[in-house]
Every structure is written in structure tokens, then in C-alpha cells.
Amino acid sequence: MTQEQLRCADGTVLESTLWTPGGEGPWPCLLMRQPYGRAIASTVTYAHPSWYAQGGFAVLVQDVRGRGDSEGAFLGFQQEASDTSETLRWMRQQPWCNGKVGTYGFSYQGLSQLLYSSTEHLPDALAPAMCGLDERLHWASEGGCHWWALGLGWALQLAAQHCQREGDHQGWEEIRRSLEDGAFVRDGMALLERFDPTGMGLRWLKSDPRQPDHWVQHHTPQELWQRPMLLIGGWHDPHLMGVLDLWNRSSSAGGATLLRIGAWSHLNWKGGVDQLQLDFFHHHLCGHEPATPLAGTQLMESGSGQWQVRSPRECSGQRWRLASGGRAALCLSDGQLLERATSSSDVVIVHDPWRAMGGRGGHLGLDAGPVDRSDLDARTDVACFTTARFDQATEVFGQPQLEIEAEADQPGFDLCLALSLCHMDGRVEQLSTGVARFLGPSAQRCQRRSVALQPLLINVEAGCALRLSIALAAWPQIAVNPGDGSQPRSGVSPSHRVITVSLKLPNAALSILPMVGAN
Prior knowledge:
Elements: E1 2-7, E2 13-19, E3 27-34, H1 49-54, E4 58-63, H2 80-91, E5 97-106, H3 108-111, E6 125-129, H4 135-140, E7 141-142, E8 145-146, H5 148-166, H6 169-181, H7 184-195, H8 200-206, E9 229-236, H9 240-252, E10 257-265, H10 274-286, E11 297-300, E12 307-308, E13 319-323, E14 336-338, E15 347-351, E16 371-372, H11 374-377, E17 382-386, E18 394-408, E19 412-422, E20 428-439, E21 447-452, E22 456-460, E23 465-471, E24 499-513
Parallel strand pairs: 3-4, 3-5, 5-6, 6-9, 9-10, 10-11
Antiparallel strand pairs: 1-2, 2-4, 7-8, 11-12, 13-14, 13-24, 15-24, 16-20, 17-23, 18-21, 18-22, 18-24, 19-20, 19-23
Helix pairs in contact: 5-6, 5-7, 5-8, 6-7
């Protein structure tokens, strides 16, 4: 292990750590560029760089500009195109590099692989994981709602590390204490204003997620889509739609693209990609044919954990109509999901901000993944619609989407959905969630509303049922709607209003659509 320095064209020095195989070089190289301190080297998800070095690669992990030991000011994603291009150019000139370079990393480290200031030194193969190009839809919000707890937590982590770098131990302690005791979901915006007022995370939280023109959508060189690419996503990861967008762009351009989506959250991959990633780079950087040909697209069935060769453009295609005698929020047996439409009464849900409905698990939770929500469904501010128990095993594959007419008595409301598996033993296992926010005078008019949920692949066993739950809050996964037409950017306050929403069921339906290419 050695320390390496790159002096950029503007004089800024970027610090890196290099691991090399035994014996004489040069070797094919792998690059990871990250903002969290290079010693961590993303070992929360990947094997240590020394493991990849044992596999025959020189591995360079670099502190991005303004982070760790690297000089300069950290400006978020906007700085990475130039620095990534300079780093790749510099690497190919080093005596330990044979000219072949691959990139890997997830989240921030995933997007840093996709941004370049020129096409002169693109990687020979790349493995972006759990990331996307659109800051609004792939990093910060969905359905017009900020990712509240996730967005604040990540922005505060970056702010705390900035305090540490600047020697502000008191600031670091204050942020850390807020994260540990959970107060950050109420106080996080004020902490960011004090400790990282120009940070990317605070800029996102201040921007309106309903206005795409106010957000950055990154672009990558067209030539990059022709390079071999391994894309990694998770059913319980908030960046999954970003990964699917990357797959769609690459496959549409004719690139040699591999896609793997596991039953994983953002940080827990269960050790699932290292050997695949090593085989991928051996093939494309060293010319070694894998012992078993690598399938282009494999998706994990969540129940069994088995991989299936499937396309994101496919789906199981079910469509259920919502039906109720009007008491779906009071009686679990009243709300139904049916294959055929039937006459139904309106369902009314009352949201009381004093006891706002909680969000749990899913792709937006700090406790991401499947969870039991039987206690949440027992509340009277959530309407539940359940299928009959299946008489044979049934696959549900694709992106669930609810279409429903709804109106509120206030100029703002949210629809917060969960799709769950009702087991024979009484457990209600939440599989997928989705949110949508409606603000302004139109919220008080009866209109068609559309809410997309997180994609999934699950085999429902005979004897089980599916349940759609509809609530009006999911705190702290999204901020609680104040009901006055404004975009919420704080915890519940005395000005938050009680909101009553009427769900019109005659044309309401839950459909399973393709996760790529759906309208």
C-alpha cells in the first residue's frame, strides 16, 4: 500500500491510496473516487481494495476535491467531471498502470464514474452502483416529496465531516448528537444552515421537487454508453430508478451492459457483488473469459433470494380494482382488491398532524427493507385494501402504480402507499412503498391522482394475500404536509392542519407495470 498524489491543472493536490498485487507491474487498474475518506474505501458494501489487488488489479482510492486529505473546496457533483477526467489521464501515465482502467463504487462514487469533461480518457469498463443522473428524481425526491430523513441524514454526514476537516469539534459533536438521538428530522435544516450553508444537500432540500427546471440533470458522454458497464441496484434502495434509467440509456445505445438488482438496501448487499465485479473486470480489462458466461440481466426474487434472467421491460401485468363499503380505514375486512370492478362507497381518511402516520422500512426508511406493518394497518387513518388469499403461487413483478380520484378539504395533502404480503400467520410484510404530494387549489378538486411505488419481484405463495395501504403521512421518510399549500421543510408545527381526504373508488385501480418503459 502506497500514498499517491495528483496535482491537477489548477494546482490542487488530490490524495489517493494505492494497493497493488504482488510481483512486478504494471497492472490493469481500478479506480474509486469518494468523499468520505479513502481509508473507508466503501467497505460498508464492497470487499477491501486489498482483496481486488489479490485478484490482479492495482486499486486506487482517491479523496475527491475538498474531502479527506485532498486540497480544494468541495462543491458536490459539479466538480467531478474535470477531476475524474484528470485522474484517469494521470493514472494511465503511471508506471504501475498498464493502460487499462476500470471504475467502481456506489452512491456518490457511482455518479463520479459517469461525469467527464472530455471523451479522451474514458474508463475501459465501469461498474456504477446505486446512483443516477437526475439530482431531483434519483437523489433527493419522488412524487413531489423530498426524501426527508435520508436527505437530511446524508447532508448532515457531509457537514459533520467538513467540521472535522476544519477542526470544528463542537460542530461535529452537535451534528452527531442530533443524528444519534433523532432530533435531526426536526432540527436538521437549521444545523445545515449553520455548518454547511452552501452544501449540495441543503440546496436540494430548499428546491421545489415539483419544478424540474430548478434542478441539475447530469449528462455523460455518449461514447460512455458503448463501454462495458455493470450496473448494481437494490429493491430497497432509493436510487433504484436512477439505476434503471442508466440501464435503459446504455442498453438503448447498444452497450455491453450487465444489470443486477438484489433484495438489498443502500448499505446492505449481503456480500453479493464482489466476485461478479472481479469477473467483470477480469473479462473486460484482462481478456479472461469467465468460467460461466455472465448473463446480461439478473433480478433477485425477494422471497427465495434466487436470481432470475429477466428484463425490466417485462412485468406480471396484474390489475386490481379497489372496493369498499366505506369503512376501509376502520375495518381490515372492508377494503378489497378485486380483479373486476364493483360498486363501492367513497372512503374518507382524516389526517391528524398531532399523531401523524409513521413511515417504516421500504426504500426511504433509515430502517430500509421489509418490515412488519400490522400495527400501522390497524390505525384508523390508513385505508387497507386486500386481495383474496391466492389459491396458487403467483408472481408479482414490475412497478406497482395506483390510479385513484381524490380530493381534500385543504389545499395540500399527501398519499403514502404500501404494498404488503399478508402471511397465513398474521404477519403483514411490507414489500414496496410510494409517495405523492399534491399542493395548491387543485388538491381541493376531485381529480385523478397517480402514485408510483418501488419496483419489486416477489413470488406470493398460495394461502397469502396482497394488501394496499393508503395513508396521508409517512413521517419522517417525508415531511408532514402542513395542509396550507406550501412545501413542508420542517417537523410538525402548530400551524399544521387536520386534513380530510375523500378517495373515490369507482375508477381506482392498482396496476403492475414495467419498471422501464411504463407510462
